[in-house]
Design goal:
Length: 556
């Protein structure tokens, strides 16, 4: 009776898996948005200045109306609608980011399911969660909507194009969302044609001739559009005065992305790749006995990955080399490899170093890991059935211990990231409270607000100088808005035209200015201000568990 009931529940969950997954995303989005509130940052100032005074969101689709030297009309179209509906209330923007980010993974799940099966889709989703949980901060920064919209449209376009190749829908919808993705960010111009071309190649033999012709025509048109878009796109390639400078530029980014791919549980990428390679190699050379077919590939993959792990740049090179036999031997995995390799290679060569750019490459490598985990689990299950029961039970105990250690390590790392998120959240909430106080209570004809630059506290404002700091250290030091962006936010978005924002050096250079205010945005700045010799009174202070912000009145 109980067994029948459990089987019924299993069937029900399997049948309605997507509905339950979507419900979980909605619930999680609501929990996160209330548990970790956010506020606008300096990137939002720039975007809001663009959309605030435009009468129509359709203006951005005109190629002559570039914004920040980029053609990303879908992003500005959405931002225009959001701003004119919600103004400067951050919650609707935040919940939109969270929901769209979450549903990108629902589409990703369906995409992997139709290419492989539900088992691989589940493992790919779990692999993504394990490997890339540390870039899940993307929805928290409202201006990162660019990455989120691109992720959603890229996944949706690939999903619909694959359905079209299979003959289950028209190509028009995949093309439409390809255009949407390309008008959100430049990378999909090439990522989508490269990935879908690889998929078509893997399915070529099983397709009827008419569908082959239709697919080739569509993909050739996409390649033509993509290459043309890259050629005429205004986004800038790295200028260099010589070959050596370009080599140094690429090497820096190669090491940067290798470091981040190998962080936390990233070694699973290498273990999975080498396991698939070695399994194919040993099965081909030595038959399919248990030792050669399972144990040796697992052990060797683990050893090779552990040896390479300290040498991040070499490890990434070995990974790319390892992809070659996988593409040649496992056509169906090549779809995922191309998705990862094309995206990462592009950003290594032309883009500013940012962990956020891994959102473009992460989906492909998560599929490779998902395929490997699926095969390892199948092979392991076969081994457990073959082994004596006493040995199987002992092996299961060992595996449960290992799984427990992984879960413990994962939860501790997630806990650390949540602490970082809490610090940033409190800093932004404090900033919001002070901004609202300024808007409501400072009504003089001219208001001067002093903020502190990083350089004035002995810190470099250069992004690369912060890379050696831990995420928690950076969280405590970060500013919600730098001085120039804060002035633009107050004057151009909030409407406080009488406010001027300067740095501390300006204050010392203009002793004649009376009655200025000073805004310390976090505990580090507050401590710095308290050590300054000028007389000051606290006129507004807001404190939360981990961070505080203070508005001072300065007496000359």
């Amino acid at each position: 009776m109980i067994t029948d009931r459990l089987e019924h529940i299993k069937i029900h969950i399997t049948k309605n898996f997507i509905s339950y997954l979507s419900l979980c995303i909605v619930i999680l989005s609501l929990i996160i948005s209330t548990r970790f509130p956010t506020y606008f940052g300096h990137g939002d100032t720039r975007h809001f200045e663009v959309v605030a005074n435009d009468n129509s969101p359709f203006r951005f689709f005109n190629p002559e109306n570039l914004v920040f030297n980029h053609y990303r009309p879908m992003v500005h179209f959405v931002q225009w609608i959001q701003f004119h509906l919600f103004g400067v209330n951050p919650f609707p923007y935040y919940i939109f980011n969270l929901l769209l980010y979450g549903f990108s993974f629902v589409v990703f799940f369906k995409l992997v399911e139709i290419v492989y099966d539900r088992r691989v889709a589940i493992f790919s989703l779990l692999a993504y969660s394990l490997l890339f949980f540390w870039i899940a901060y993307v929805p928290f920064s409202i201006s990162f909507i660019t990455f989120i919209i691109e992720m959603f449209f890229l996944n949706l376009s690939l999903f619909l194009l694959i359905l079209a190749i299979k003959g289950r829908c028209s190509f028009i919808w995949g093309i439409v969302f390809y255009l949407f993705a390309s008008m959100s960010k430049e990378a999909p111009l090439i990522i989508i044609p490269a990935t879908i071309s690889t998929y078509l190649f893997t399915e070529w033999r099983d397709l009827p001739s008419e569908r082959r012709k239709g697919s080739i025509i569509v993909i050739l048109l996409m390649w033509l559009f993509g290459i043309t878009g890259v050629i005429i796109s205004p986004f800038s390639f790295r200028p260099s005065s010589g070959l050596m400078e370009r080599i140094i530029f690429i090497h820096e980014r190669w090491n940067f992305y290798a470091d981040h791919l190998l962080s936390y549980f990233g070694i699973l990428i290498w273990i999975s790749t080498f396991y698939l390679i070695l399994k194919d190699l040993f099965n081909r050379k030595g038959g399919k006995d248990a030792v050669r077919g399972f144990y040796v590939p697992v052990i060797l993959a683990l050893l090779i990955s552990l040896i390479l792990r300290p040498f991040h740049d070499v490890a990434l090179l070995a990974l790319f080399i390892g992809f070659v036999p996988l593409i040649l031997k496992r056509f169906r995995v090549s779809f995922a490899i191309i998705w990862f390799a094309v995206a990462l290679s592009g950003f290594i060569m032309i883009e500013f170093m940012s962990r956020t750019y891994l959102t473009d490459a992460s989906f492909g490598v998560a599929i490779v890991v998902g395929v490997a985990i699926s095969e390892i689990m199948s092979d392991l299950n076969s081994e457990l059935r073959r082994l004596p029961s006493s040995v199987s039970r002992a092996l299961l105990v060992i595996l449960f211990i290992i799984a427990g250690l992984v879960v413990y390590g994962f939860t501790s790392k997630v806990k650390d990231k949540l602490e970082v998120l809490r610090v940033v959240s409190e800093t932004r909430e404090n900033f919001r409270d002070v901004i609202e106080f300024i808007s409501a209570n400072l009504n003089k004809e001219e208001i001067t607000i002093i903020v502190i630059d990083y350089d004035e506290m002995g810190l470099s404002s250069d992004y690369q100088a912060w890379l050696h700091l831990s995420d928690l250290e950076r969280a405590h030091l970060q500013k919600t808005m730098k001085g120039d962006f804060m002035e633009r936010w107050l004057r151009n978005i909030v409407g406080k035209k009488n406010i001027h924002v300067y740095n501390l050096q300006w204050f010392y250079e203009h002793p004649e200015v009376e009655g200025s205010y000073l805004f310390a945005m976090n505990n580090y700045e507050k401590e710095f201000v308290e050590n300054q010799e000028f007389k000051k009174d606290i006129i507004y202070k807001v404190e939360r568990d981990r961070e505080s912000a203070v508005l001072y009145y300065i007496h000359k």
